Amino acid sequence: EDPSEPLPLWLLSPSEVRSQLLIVAAGTRQLAFAAGDVEAVAERGEIHPVPGARALFLGAVAHRGQLVPLLSASEVESPSALPGRDPAGEGGAAATENPSRSFFLDLNLLAGPLLLVVRRGSELLALGFERFVGFCPPAKLSGAPVPGAPRWIKASGIIDEIPVLVVDTGSLLDYCKAP
């Protein structure tokens, strides 16, 4: 039996399901998260503004009686949020030489009405996405990260001829906490 081929979830034990990768579509990208790091997948409710919050966050969303920070697509996906940007927005060499630029142009973590809440210990983070794609075993997505990917992308692979990026939840949470 090939360990990289997905098994139907109903054939897996709960611990085996937690070891799978959960894949969601965000913009034109597909992102995979360790299923064991996923707290919830739900419809995105009202976004509550948080005065004084860093631009990295769009606000907060309610999840099981508490407010969870919602990652802002504009800060994560925008080339202006990356090193090597042209702050004046006039183009030029600095803006075009940034290898991460094309990675972020088509990534939208607030593209749709669905919400993914990930957890590390007591820390929660919400991300918006468009649709649930499915589950797959980690062995199927164990390639090197794409060039120019942020440090919170730990691996990549191809499923059904579509590139999938594997998110390291801990690194993403660390990225969100960095000054």
Which characteristics define this entry?
single chain, 179 residues, alpha+beta, five-stranded mixed beta sheet, three-stranded antiparallel beta sheet, 5 helices
If you had to describe this structure to a student in words, what would you say it looks like?
The protein has helices at 14-18, 73-77, 93-96, 101-105, 169-177, and strands at 21-26, 29-34, 38-43, 57-63, 66-71, 114-120, 123-129, 131-136, 153-159, 162-167. The protein is of the alpha+beta class and 179 residues long. A five-stranded mixed β-sheet has the order 8-1-2-10-9. It is globular, with a radius of gyration of 17 Å. Residues 77-106 have low confidence and may be disordered.
Tally of separate helices: 5
Give the radius of gyration: 17 Å
Strand line-up of the largest beta sheet? 8-1-2-10-9
**Principal-axes shape call:** globular
Q: Point out poorly predicted stretches.
A: 77-106
Topology, number of strands:
10
Average of per-residue pLDDT values: 76
Main sheet?
5 strands, mixed
